[in-house]
Amino acid sequence: MSGFRQLSSRLHRAAVQPCRAALQHQQRRHARVSNVRFVQTQQNVAEKYRHLLEQKAKSEGMESVEQLKEVYKPQIDRYRRDSIAPPKLPDSLSHASSSSSVLSSAPDAAPTGTVPITDPPPPPPNIPKSSAQKSLASFVDVPKILLHDAKEIEYIWRARHLADKNSLCATIPLATYRRLEAAARKHPMFILPLPRPDQGVELHFLQWQFSSPETSNVMFTSLIEYKLRGEYAAPHTTVTHHLDICEEKGIVLLQGSVVENRGVSVEEAKWLLMALQKFYGAEEGSGEEASRRQELLRLFSEGRGEFDVQALIREAETIN
């Protein structure tokens, strides 16, 4: 079984099976969970990609999608059986290979069909620091900004991003960032529940990437998008931490952007960032709440069957 299918199996078990129990989950302190659902149903997904299936059938000399499904029935049945098996994080996607990304922002990398195949998919691509990723110098004059103290730099940094309505920006104390980084290197992938008023909870997949000594990135995509497109899933939010001045000023500059019309607003992206800091910033020995969040990170990272989405949702409900 390929790495992607094993991870998809684990996410499927983590996200879909507990959703049934969440239908009766009662309102808690800060978020109401009336049910847990995804953005699209499987029927909608099939209709959305039907034209691709028709093209696939035509290219193989078949008359209809139904005939195509019949031909691929053994592979489809095998995939369904495998998806029920206890999930296990594959070695190729373990925290030891955090430089490999399962999220690609390349828009032209979409798969050409949705029919399962027997050959393993290509491994997740390594995404090096590219021209698309802006350096700190592209935002500010670094030598000049070093003339200011940390508080003044924070004002300058926020003012620099005021004109962009889809931007995210913040300054993070270096000690706080180092705690986040240490947890992220051990657990580079995770899922976060996003409460939506009167709609329930939507799960989002995140991955850290350490692309250079001066930067680290976090990419967010909806779980349904990741399950549909795997390593080709397009992030709705990308965040970069700039460490260029962290030693001199004791702060890390955060900059990110939210893609329009991809299902997440800027305010919702801010909430996901806050939730990320609550889970990855939980200090060992700092209380029962921190211990629960660290344990959820560990269980998900190790692909353990004990990982409980309902426990994850309960923790998210306590985030102000």
UniProtKB/TrEMBL annotation:
InterPro entries found in the cross-reference section: ATP11
PANTHER family per UniProt: ATP SYNTHASE MITOCHONDRIAL F1 COMPLEX ASSEMBLY FACTOR 1, CHAPERONE ATP11
Ranges of biased composition (kind: Pro residues): 118-127
Biased composition (Low complexity): 90-117
Keyword set includes S-adenosyl-L-methionine: no
UniProt-recorded name of the protein: Uncharacterized protein
Residue ranges, annotated region (Disordered): 82-132
GO biological process: mitochondrial proton-transporting ATP synthase complex assembly
Organism the protein comes from: Drechslerella dactyloides
GO cellular component: mitochondrion
Pfam (any one): ATP11
Keywords, alphabetical: Mitochondrion, Transit peptide
Keyword Hydrolase: no
Protein family: Belongs to the ATP11 family.
Intracellular or extracellular location(s): Mitochondrion
